[in-house]
């Protein structure tokens, strides 16, 4: 951490320029030197100071707020500084160029600040991933999920489980070591194994909710289907609030799947418009319909549209659907069954449809806490932990050494999620997904 051969890194941490204020961040062993060189001294830590920022020839680059954080009490755990300067392009590039020209100071790679925070024990891997998700979050539910994870929701859960596993191993192995003495009562083992059986159930429940976490993070798949010309593409455009799909009075306009990411009442969703489903001899249209059916097969929610009471019935029975009566402005006089009536022409009913989608998605996303697995990586290690724990709990005829070893393996699998156990191979992948300056 204080290794002077480590590079000191700098980056613009704030967004697009020009802006009112730009925040430049510096982290590493040469922060004091940087402050002495460019700000005429090292300011008292954690107190905002208005300073002139100069290049090495003493020319004024800008005047701004300078903050100094002494490691290890900083974001990265190293010495850090922040320059809050005027957010002009030329100002920022002049300061960055000056910083990066100092010895052993260079521009940061994407995610490098957070990687250092992880490597210095300031956060574990799930918290780092949560932070990346928090910055990327576009909807309220994504934000809630990410803030829980970045604040240690999974960390605490898995640390609690790892403690129970360790405790169990300690007791089980004590039983083993003193097998022929009387001072370790036999009931201890019973208690250990009943707690492990309980843990197994908790882990299973948590793993079962992984698909919810992944969907909240990555978006639910919502598919619009219906016969030709009912207004599917019109609805997609209305929900996306832009002209994504071609709308025309000609039946059979849409052939390809057209997907848009939207915020559906706080949930991230990918809405897919499809070809109108009907009997046809036209090859291209047939292919479009085949694609529509494939999209239906993987949908989380189907918007089944009809303007006359005839609905397509191609969705798998298990997929929840909302029946939408379209073109309600046309008052055709034929009453028929629907969950909601909309008119894209007048806008009537569209908000009610969005609300209905929100409530259906929230019943799909029925979970006990926002501490949910959010990545395939989490799911894989959890599955492995569960397998080992299941072996340890259920194979009671096996030698105790073997069962205890499985408990250790379960704990290691959890450690791979948090980064406690060797994860070198995944670090590049995880941190490169960050933006520069984080
Ligand atoms: N009056 C009225 N017309 C609508 C409404 N929604 C769509 N339309 C019209 O209905 C026709 C078909 O609309 P599209 O959105 O292309 O229908 P589609 O279901 O995507 O059609 P295909 O892609 O051919 O299957 C167009 O002429 C639209 O302008 C509505 O709410 N009211
Ligand atoms: K059409
Ligand atoms: Mg269409």
UniProtKB/TrEMBL annotation:
Cell compartments where the protein resides: Cytoplasm
Q: How is the cofactor bound?
A: Binds 1 potassium ion per subunit.
Main location class? cytoplasm
| Pfam assignment, any one | TrmE_N
Q: How does it assemble?
A: Homodimer. Heterotetramer of two MnmE and two MnmG subunits.
* Annotated PANTHER family: TRNA MODIFICATION GTPASE GTPBP3, TRNA MODIFICATION GTPASE GTPBP3, MITOCHONDRIAL
Would you tell me the protein name for this molecule? tRNA modification GTPase MnmE
- Its source organism is Georhizobium profundi
Task: Give the organism's phylogenetic lineage.
Answer: Bacteria, Pseudomonadati, Pseudomonadota, Alphaproteobacteria, Hyphomicrobiales
